[in-house]
Structures are given as C-alpha cells and as structure tokens.
C-alpha cells in the first residue's frame, strides 16, 4: 500500500491546482497567500509567505512533497528545504502551453496516491486545449500593451514571462520590448515614466495583483500613456497557471473582443 503523501505548497496557483486535482486531503501546509479555494484551504496551516517561509514550522509538518516555483520562491529557501524534504517539485510555467507539462508533473508525483488525479488532470488539459484553440481560431490585430503590476515605481512584465505570453494569444505584445531571462528582477522591468515608446501604447492593463490597482489609478496610468485605452484587469486570471489557465484565456479573449 502506498504511503499517503504530505504536501506543502509554497505557490498560490499550485495550491489551487492541488485542490482541483482532488489532493486537498493531503495538503498539510500553505503560504498565507494561498487563499483559493477558501473553503478547501482555510484549515490548512500557514507557514509564512512565498518569499519568507518559516522553515522550522515547515519541518515540523514533516512533508513528503513541497511544491515551489522559480519566480515565486527564493533559491536559498528551496535549497534549505531539500535538506529535509524527500521530494521538492520545482515548477516554472512561462507560457500557457506549459500547463500541460505542469499537469503531467502532478500526475507523475501523485497519481499513485490518488488515481483520480490522472482523470482530473486530463479534464483540465482538455479545457486548456479548447481555450487555446479559441484564441487561435481568429486573427487578432496586434496591440502594443503595457501590463502594470506595481506602482511607485511602475513595474511591468518582460516578454518571456507567463503573463506576456498569455497576452500574445490575442495579438497583444507587451512593452518594453525586452526579455528578462529565466530568473531574476529583469523579468519585471521598472519604468522611469518618460520612455518615448509610452506615447505609442494602445492598451494599459492595470492588474489586480500583486498591486491592487483600482479606479483611482486610472488617471495616473492615462497620464503615463495618453493615447492608450486604460483598463483594470483580473491579475489572477492572467497570471495564475493551473486551473485558471483556461478561464484566463477565455477572459483575455473577451477583453480583446470588447
């Protein structure tokens, strides 16, 4: 008989994915940012944040598996966890298509403990294929997009991030025209606010996370890009991989059609 896993997730979207795959009974720890779905995670112990994990508390939970992400978690934290956790699952989706590999990673790790994981993963993969096909079914006019994730200073996304590659599914090209590399701060460029290309942006998208932009920030963003259409968007749908990927693509398609 297979020993049941004891899983800790250090990534909000992965916590939600575990629940969607039927693995909530095996979830023994999460970060304070892992809040979805609320009913399933409310009673799961918190062990700090994504960047400030309480290693002592994590050790006491005696996990067999810890789920981490290259962008979300610190390398030194992950290295420390490897010293006492048998299985550290490192994830790094950088495009919506990468969710297929992520789902397979979860199947490989947990299908023996819960056979239903395979079926649930197949359902999510099928939904993602349909949503990707929906985006690919029509030609989209190219738009120059500034996707803002922070202010004071303004921060955006490089073109090799998950968010930017989501936007590309509907012909939206993120600016600035830079790639940030596989890790590090360059993946989320800081703006000075006087870049010449800002005058040519077609759309400014103000994300709901990690900075919670609201209506009061619309005029500030409009001043940054006077010719652009400025909108508030659901950052969780556009940046969370896992079970939100398909819904995020459908949501994005709706934004592009509006």
Description:
This protein has helices at 12-20, 38-41, 55-60, 75-82, 98-110, 116-136, 162-167, 218-224, 235-239, 244-257, and strands at residues 7-9, 27-30, 65-69, 87-91, 143-148, 172-174, 203-207, 229-233. The N and C termini lie far apart (53 Å). The strands form two sheets. It has a four-stranded parallel sheet with strand order 2-1-3-4, sandwiched between helices. Strands 6-5-7-8 form a four-stranded parallel sheet. Helix 6 (116-136) runs parallel beside helix 10. The protein is of the alpha/beta class and 258 residues long. It has two domains: 7-134, Nitrogenase molybdenum iron protein domain (Rossmann fold, 3-Layer(aba) Sandwich); 143-257, Nitrogenase molybdenum iron protein domain (Rossmann fold, 3-Layer(aba) Sandwich), CATH 3.40.50.1980. The protein is 36% helix and 14% strand.
Ordered list of secondary-structure elements with their pairings:
Elements: E1 7-9, H1 12-20, E2 27-30, H2 38-41, H3 55-60, E3 65-69, H4 75-82, E4 87-91, H5 98-110, H6 116-136, E5 143-148, H7 162-167, E6 172-174, E7 203-207, H8 218-224, E8 229-233, H9 235-239, H10 244-257
Parallel strand pairs: 1-2, 1-3, 3-4, 5-6, 5-7, 7-8
Helix pairs in contact: 5-6, 6-10
């Amino acid at each position: 008989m297979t020993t049941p896993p004891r899983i800790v997730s250090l990534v909000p979207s992965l916590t939600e994915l575990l629940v969607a795959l039927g693995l909530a009974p095996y979830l023994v720890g999460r970060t304070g940012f892992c809040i979805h779905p609320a009913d399933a995670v409310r009673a799961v112990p918190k062990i700090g944040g994504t960047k400030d994990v309480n290693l002592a508390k994590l050790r006491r939970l005696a996990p067999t598996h810890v789920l981490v992400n290259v962008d979300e978690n610190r390398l030194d934290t992950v290295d420390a966890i490897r010293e006492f956790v048998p299985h550290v699952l490192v994830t790094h989706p950088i495009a919506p298509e990468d969710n297929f590999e992520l789902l397979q990673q979860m199947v490989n790790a947990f299908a023996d403990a819960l056979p239903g994981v395979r079926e649930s993963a197949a359902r999510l993969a099928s939904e993602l294929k349909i949503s990707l096909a929906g985006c690919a079914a029509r030609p989209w006019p190219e738009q120059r997009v500034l996707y803002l994730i922070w202010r004071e200073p303004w921060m955006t996304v490089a073109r090799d991030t998950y968010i930017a590659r989501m936007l590309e599914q509907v012909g939206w090209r993120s600016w600035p025209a830079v790639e940030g590399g596989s890790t590090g701060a360059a993946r989320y460029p800081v703006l000075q606010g006087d870049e010449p290309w800002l005058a040519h942006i077609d759309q400014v998208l103000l994300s709901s996370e990690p900075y919670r932009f609201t209506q009061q920030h619309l005029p500030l963003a409009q001043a940054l890009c006077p010719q652009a259409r400025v909108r508030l968007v659901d950052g969780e749908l556009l940046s969370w991989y896992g079970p939100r990927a398909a819904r995020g693509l459908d949501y994005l398609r709706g934004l592009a059609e509006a």
